[in-house]
Amino acid sequence: MLKVKALRCEHLNNPIGLGCLKPRLSWQIESEKMYVSQKRFQLQVSVHPTFEPLIWNHFTYSDQSILFPYEGPPLESGQRYYYRVKVWAQGAGDTEPEESEWSESGFWEMGLLHEQDWKAQWITVKERSIHEQFQTRAPFAASKYFSVEGKVKKAVIYATSLGLYELEFNGQRVGDAYFTPGWTDYNDRVQVQAYDVTSTIREQHNRITATVGEGWYSGYLGWQKRKDTYGNTNALLFQMKISYEDGRSEVICSDSSWEETSCAILMSDIYNGEIYDARLEQQAAEHSSLTERKMMQVVSFPLSHLIAQENEPVRVMNRLKPVELIRTPKGELVLNLGQNMVGWLEFKVEAPEGTVLNLVHGEVLDQQGNFYRDNIRDAAQQITYICSGKGTEIFRPHFTFQGFQYVKLEGFPDGVTIEDFTGVVLHSDMETIGVFETSDPKLNQLQHNIVWGQKGNFLDVPTDCPQRDERLGWTGDAQIFARTASFNMNAASFFRKWLRDLAYNQLENGAVPFVVPDVLKGTFADNMDKTTAAWGDAAVICPWTLYQCYRDKQILVQQYNSMKAWVDYIRAQGDEECLWDTGLQLGDWLALDSEEGSYFGATDGTLVATAYFAYSTHILAQTAKLLNRYTDYNTYKSLHEGIKTAFANRYFDDAGKLTSNTQTAQVVALHFGLVPEKYKTQVIQELVRLIEKNDMHLDTGFVGTPYLCLVLSDHGYTDVAYNILFQNDYPSWLYQVERGATTMWEHWDSIKVDGSFWSTDMNSFNHYSYGSVGDFMYQNIAGIDVLEAGYKKSRLAPKPPANLTSAHGKLETPYGTLEVQWEIVNKEMKMTVRVPHNTTAEITLPGVMEPDALQQTIAMQYPSIQYPPGDVPQELAGKLGSTGKQVFFQRSGDHEMTFTVGSGQYTFQYRCN
Questions:
Q1: What is the pLDDT of residues 462-499, one digit of tens each?
Q2: Alpha carbons 691 and 709: distance in angstroms, whole number
Q3: Whose CA, among 65, 381, 589, 754, lies 20 to 30 Å from 509?
Q4: What angle do CA 901, 828, 783 make, to 5 degrees?
Q5: What is the SS3 assignment for 725-750?
Q6: Contact (CB, 8 A) for 782 and 798
Q7: Which residues does the UniProt record annotate as the domain Bacterial alpha-L-rhamnosidase N-terminal (predicted)?
């Protein structure tokens, strides 16, 4: 039976507080048939769950089933809208499209869309205490009491803050989001969250309490210890709309009638941690009996800066039990979570009143097995809890997070046990959509490390590291990891929100900051300002990556001016229009071929800059074409050709050798399509020679590493790529696994061979950049790649490594599940694939020993499979053989059979070489 399922609005499941005026709706098709494709659909929207009356009834002949825009009457603030979908789809054997039943309904609810919808005022306290040691302002708390008159139909809270806030309503925490309102550039944008609290409100004695901390708004940011980046006054904005059954409504707003209440949080800072005095909790509880009232102060801040929540909020995503509680050689009590994680340590304790407990967080133990935190630099990462003495006390922090695996415990009573602690993992609540696993436990651990590196650093913005005095949204790290990130999790909304801030932070001349939000104010170091290649290119590469992975054309529309401004900025930098050969470049950052004591790799920085100039210009041209901006398309297509010519003239000598003879130079020249055709064989062979010279190891940094294995595989040297991937000595990915890593490291030798550490200046053990190898593994080992944006057409072409007997890759695409599973036993290959409905896939079977027999078997089992025509590209001449409609490739002795299929599940079993 044909069904419609998985309704989504703007990538989200039943969102409330939405801000977009034309929400886009998506759905998936479920059917037992094969080759199912949508022919038409009907979409209905109503303000009633019964769909009577309708406000929009849309019927069209189209195969579009993702991100279809609402085009009905204008949407109203605070209104909930229900929608449902019916489709007509045709499968294998159908002469006419089959009609589905109506889907189950989904809904979205609008936020406050207009400035005039706000009746609330920004409020703050009149006086704030300053913590002497850290020079931070203590969080404040404010309360409001109210009653309601009548039966409540619905109650919704809209709230935000300058700083971070938490709400409590009638003794219950409001919502499950943390670190609200999130980190944006508050000079331009402050997100608003919406909470449905209908089930919590009562007729009499309602109490709302808000607690506000400094957070990113005014707390410490960056290793330069900047404070008050956006302002020095933390404030709350709160508005609750109460709708009654009889049609009346009223609002409860933040204003000067709110009262300051006692707060037990003495200090809470993102880097330094939190100090909490549980003895003050009783004062807060008894506040209603106090005779002296401290009223809140109204402050001014533009309501025009308010925007609806754009991405998934940070939530509790995992809870981990520690694996051991040890005494180190120094005699310190240390807890081991068994996993480098980001979040908090929740604990319970029973101790006398006034007992001071300290929890100090670190990532690793040193050579002697002692607690180590020198790499954390100036971030205290410490929780101090002062016990109330009232029985068993349970605590978790509020406006801070830590990156850690080990916690040094100080002041805890002798009876403390491992069961008293829980690691609470926090990150942006992005749906997990990718699975990758193999027969090799070490490779599986590498995948685990990649995913946990993403978890730890995708906390509202894509940070470089989650523990030291930095935790900034480095643009270069984000762009090189974006494709890998988008396989593991649905990062569409996450990146869309961050890219908006990138555009706001972009300078008038088009320069892109090193970090977004830009707390460094355009400066990375004393001799580096503005921006640099590979980092600034996030403005172009990230939107294009999102489009490829999610078919979200709106992200290109949203970012187009930013993309264009970046490319135009580069054009103005070089001595020639088609070269970027000026300024100091980060280049292949942290490459192993650098001079001793230098962070800069040996690859010519201007070569890297010009290569990225070409890459971003090419993407911009393709984007312009997609958006029907043909004047721009012709302009940037021509510019791209000019850059390619200029690159070849500047960076190749007469013999066809790159002037910068490094692994990374060969990699970027090949990956970005900058090698003249006559030199391609020579350049790929030179890359292989350099790898062989380095004993089959890489020496690449941030720029070369993401593309190294992809380039090798794309040019017929998959075996060399696998040789590098499966190395387990230094430098390699599995070297980190051998050393017990549970996340990705910032340096190939964050822990050196002798057990010592890399420099404490910059040595994160949770730094996702080198996890970009995931993209190679998913495309080659699992064999999953995109041919048409959003996996409307996919490529399923695994290349089994010799040392693996099986692999499994699964991706929840916008259309449904795309899956490849293969296993080799005694040279017998069994490969099962699943292709989602309303899509097609190009399948390549590797290592086919008997192509004619297999073709006959496939034709009998799946007669509708389409083989490609006999015409083949000239450059593949001599590498292809053909039999009738069947074409099979031969590379490195491996036969491949390629064909195109519609949706369904397929199993192939055959002898392989």
A1: 999 999 999 999 999 999 999 999 999 999 999 999 99
A2: 11
A3: 589
A4: 45
A5: HCCCCCCCHHHHHHCCCCCCCCCCCC
A6: yes
A7: 151-317
Q: pLDDT tens for residues 107-166?
A: 999 999 999 999 999 999 988 888 888 889 999 999 999 999 899 999 999 999 999 999
Of the candidates 194, 183, 699, the residue with the CA atom closest to the CA atom of residue 459:
183
Parallel/antiparallel/unpaired status of strands 122-124 and 249-253: unpaired
> CA dist 721 to 489, 687, 711, 820, Å?
25, 11, 9, 21
**How far apart are alpha carbons 546 and 540 in whole angstroms?**
10
Backbone torsion region of residue 823, taken as left when φ is above 0, otherwise alpha when ψ lies between -120 and 50, otherwise beta: beta
Are residues 193 and 309 in contact, defined by beta-carbon separation less than 8 angstroms?
Answer: yes
The dihedral of CA 452, 454, 460, 462: what is its sign? Answer: positive
Residue 883 has what pLDDT?
32
811 within 8 A of 876, measured Cβ to Cβ: no
| Cα separation, 290 vs 280, whole angstroms | 14
Q: Classify residue 680 by burial, with Cβ atoms within 10 Å: 0-12, 13-18, 19+.
A: middle
Closest of 806, 850, 835, 856 to residue 903, by C-alpha: 835
pLDDT band at 289 (very low <50, low <70, confident <90, very high): very low
The CA-based dihedral angle spanning residues 83, 86, 92, 95, taken in that order and rounded to the nearest 10 degrees: -160
Reduced 3-state DSSP string for 794-842 = EEECCCCCCCCCEEEEEEEECCEEEEEEEEEECCEEEEEEEECCCCEEE
Instruction: List the catalytic residue out of 166, 437, 746, 896.
Output: 746
pLDDT at site 291: 46
Active-site residue flag, 746: yes
Residues 6+ apart with CB under 8 A from 517: 183, 184, 185, 216, 461, 473, 501, 505
| Length, in residues, of the chain | 913
The overall pTM is greater than 0.90: yes
* Nearest residue to 448 (alpha-carbon basis) of 432, 464, 430, 459: 432
Contacts 24+ apart (CB under 8 A), 570-575: 570/533, 570/609, 570/613, 570/616, 571/639, 572/509, 574/610
Predicted confidence at residue 443, as pLDDT, reads: 98
3-class DSSP assignment, residue 907: strand
pLDDT in tens, 874-905: 443 343 333 333 333 333 334 788 999 999 99
* C-alpha 191, offset from chain centre: 18
Q: Which of 310, 312, 470, 812 is catalytic?
A: 470
Residue type at 874 in one-letter notation: Q
Nearest Cα residue to 124 out of 150, 71, 74, 161: 161
Please say if 470 is a catalytic residue.
Answer: yes
**Three state DSSP letters for 243-297:** EECCCCEEEEECCCCCEEECCCEEEEECCCEEEEEHHHHHHHHCHHHCCCCCECE
Q: What does the pLDDT look like over 37-77, one tens digit per residue?
A: 999 999 999 999 999 999 999 999 999 999 999 999 999 99
pLDDT value of residue 285: 56
Q: How distant, in Å, are the alpha carbons of 384, 457, 600 from that of 519?
A: 28, 17, 23
What does the alpha-carbon distance between residue 748 and residue 590 come to, in Å, rounded to a whole number?
9
**DSSP string covering 132-169, please?**
TTT--BPPEEEEEEE---S-EEEEEEEEEEESEEEEEE
* pLDDT classification of 595: cutoffs 50, 70, 90: confident
Tell me the C-alpha distance between 346 and 316, whole Å: 12
Cα–Cα distance between 893 and 318 in angstroms, integer?
Answer: 46
Spatial separation of the C-alpha atoms in residues 364 and 405, rounded to whole Å = 7
Of 671, 675, 712, nearest in space to 690 by CA: 712
- pLDDT at residue 22 is higher than 70: yes
- What contacts 168, CB < 8 A, 6 or more positions away? 174, 208, 209, 210, 211
Decide: 272 and 379 in contact? Cβ < 8 Å. yes
